[in-house]
């Protein structure tokens, strides 16, 4: 029997494309063998998903819908494979767990697109069912005696999707700062260089990494100048340092409680409509954290994500 076609949807090429994308963003802490596993599993499950959609004569999806379902498969196969690797789950158990996750994503996403649900509603729906399924798969292995309590908790405590969201938020913040290097910004970079040039190398590198490449290069050049102090006006330096003080990164050990207090203060002193517009397309748990931070319990979202949210609000509230 001839294979049914979804116009514009080549599931084989699409699976290759998603696997190729995955290979470019595998975290650096993942070794070569595990990286190959991640890329292969993304390709395998995306191919199987696309193949099933193409052959299913009971549904009539278009290219965009089929691609969306398959992309969900790829994204969650990627993130959960990273979580399993980082939590050191035995390699022999990984594919079985991921297969259950992929099947859950496939069924939930497929039904959602058939019902023509908006994508912003599908995303949290799929995430919820992934988390439930992932935990259930681990619980089942624990009941069989092939996984202990510690291994299960290590896996549940991993969240590569949140870690990547944090990285992207930091990149966006850096891009906003570095859209163009004006004369005023050059002065600020020179002033900052004067302040940090005698810091430990590790601290300097951490600060440099907060800037986009062009600004990072300028800042590095100033830090490397032996006679920088003689070339910068002290009054200008004081003014510039005062202006950039708020842009310096928060301590990495900032407590969850402190972050919550800062978010509460920002929301309390801001226009409620502006806040609502900013977070309209965020995931439900993020919106709940921002609008109801006072009642938020530690662990509701990862502390590092709470810190990114706080920084984003600080930088974008007018």
Continuous helix count? 16
The parts where pLDDT drops under 50 for at least 5 residues are 173-179
The radius of gyration is 24 Å
**Strand percent estimate:** under 5%
What is the 3D form? Answer: elongated
- Mean pLDDT, rounded to whole units? 82
SSE order: HHHHHHHHHHHHHHHH
Main beta-sheet annotation: none
Helicity level, as a percent range? over 70%
Distance between the termini: 61 Å
| Overall number of strands | 0
User: In terms of structural class, how would the helical and strand content be classed?
Assistant: mainly alpha
Question: What can you tell me about this protein's structure?
Answer:
The protein is mostly helical. The protein is built from 16 helices and no strands. Helix 4 packs antiparallel against helix 5 (119-143) and helix 7 runs parallel beside helix 16.
């Amino acid at each position: 029997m001839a294979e049914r076609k979804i116009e514009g949807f080549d599931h084989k090429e699409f699976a290759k494309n998603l696997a190729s994308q995955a290979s470019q963003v595998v975290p650096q802490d993942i070794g070569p063998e595990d990286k190959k596993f991640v890329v292969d599993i993304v390709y395998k499950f995306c191919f199987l998903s696309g193949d099933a959609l193409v052959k299913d004569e009971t549904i009539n999806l278009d290219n965009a819908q089929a691609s969306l379902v398959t992309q969900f498969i790829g994204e969650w196969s990627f993130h959960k494979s990273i979580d399993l690797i980082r939590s050191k789950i035995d390699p022999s158990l990984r594919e079985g767990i991921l297969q259950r996750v992929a099947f859950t994503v496939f069924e939930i996403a497929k039904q959602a697109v058939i019902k023509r649900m908006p994508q912003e509603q599908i995303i949290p729906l799929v995430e919820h069912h992934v988390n439930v399924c992932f935990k259930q798969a681990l619980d089942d292995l624990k009941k069989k005696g092939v996984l202990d309590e510690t291994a299960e908790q290590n896996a549940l405590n991993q969240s590569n999707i949140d870690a990547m969201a944090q990285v992207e938020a930091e990149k966006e913040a850096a891009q906003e700062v570095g859209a163009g290097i004006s004369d005023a910004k050059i002065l600020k970079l020179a002033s900052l260089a004067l302040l940090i040039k005698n810091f430990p190398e590790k601290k300097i590198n951490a600060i440099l990494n907060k800037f986009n490449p062009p600004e990072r290069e300028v800042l590095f050049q100033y830090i490397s100048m032996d006679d920088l102090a003689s070339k910068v006006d002290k009054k200008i330096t004081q003014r510039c340092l005062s202006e950039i003080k708020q842009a310096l990164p928060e301590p990495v050990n900032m407590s969850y409680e402190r972050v919550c207090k800062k978010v509460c203060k920002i929301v309390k002193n801001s226009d409620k409509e502006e806040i609502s517009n900013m977070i309209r397309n965020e995931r439900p748990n993020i919106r709940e954290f921002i609008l109801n931070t006072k009642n938020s319990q530690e662990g509701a979202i990862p502390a590092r994500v709470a810190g990114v949210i706080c920084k984003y609000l600080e930088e974008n509230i007018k």
